[in-house]
Amino acid sequence: MRIAVVTDSTAYLTDEQCEKYSIYRLPLSIAMGNETIEETKMDSTSFFEKVKTMDGLPTSSQPAIGQASLLFSELSKKYDAVISIHLSSELSGTFNTIASLSKIYEGLAIYPYDSGISCSAQGYFVLEAARMAREDASVEEIFQKFEKMQQTLRAYFVVDDLNHLVRGGRLSNGSAIIGSLLKIKPILHFEDKKITVFEKIRTKKKALKRIEQLLSEDVEKGYPIVATIIHANVEQEAIEWMKTLKKHHPAIRYELSYFGPVIGTHLGEGALGLTWMEDQTKI
Question: Which residue positions does the secretion signal occupy (predicted)?
Answer without folding.
Answer: none
